[in-house]
Amino acid sequence: MSKPIFSTGLRWLWLVVAVLIIDLGSKALILQHFQLGETLSLFPSLNLHYARNYGAAFSFLADKGGWQRWFFAGIAIGICVVLAVMMYRAKASQKLNNIAYALIIGGALGNLFDRLWHGFVVDMIDFYVGDWHFATFNLADTAICVGAALIVLEGFIPSADKKQPDRA
């Protein structure tokens, strides 16, 4: 028996669409207005810097000849399917988990689009302190990290189901 979509976590799929629009829009702006390697200083410690990532986080496996494009695409698809099933099985009222899953799916789909369309992921956020620069990343990566952090946070918050009533 199927349940109404809006009673499940899939009610939060609008957030996936929002993440995709923001991520792909920011990447389109970078591709239209920046040359590869070009940097624009926004604030102290924050630049826009157009970089291409042929690997995964921190350019992991970036120099491995191209097979990693399909490997990471497969992982992204698998994660999106698993999280969408988890959202379907969850109640819409389980906001924190569903928001986390939607952020991760949106970010994964944004980077998946880049991998399949361009053959690389467009990165543009360069955070630095002094001469030390963190790995360049994008808004999809940010959504994935925030989603993962929310999942960890949810693990520390007692759920209403686990609370036992006080009996005196």
UniProtKB/TrEMBL annotation:
Topology of this chain in the membrane: Multi-pass membrane protein
Keyword Ribosomal protein in annotation: no
GO MF terms held by the record: aspartic-type endopeptidase activity
A single GO cellular-component term on record: plasma membrane
Main location, first listed in the record: membrane
EC number: 3.4.23.36
Reactions accelerated catalytically: Release of signal peptides from bacterial membrane prolipoproteins. Hydrolyzes -Xaa-Yaa-Zaa-|-(S,diacylglyceryl)Cys-, in which Xaa is hydrophobic (preferably Leu), and Yaa (Ala or Ser) and Zaa (Gly or Ala) have small, neutral side chains
EC class (word): hydrolase
Keyword Metal-binding: no
HAMAP family, sorted: LspA
Name of the featured protein: Lipoprotein signal peptidase
Species per Swiss-Prot/TrEMBL record: Siccibacter turicensis
Gene: lspA
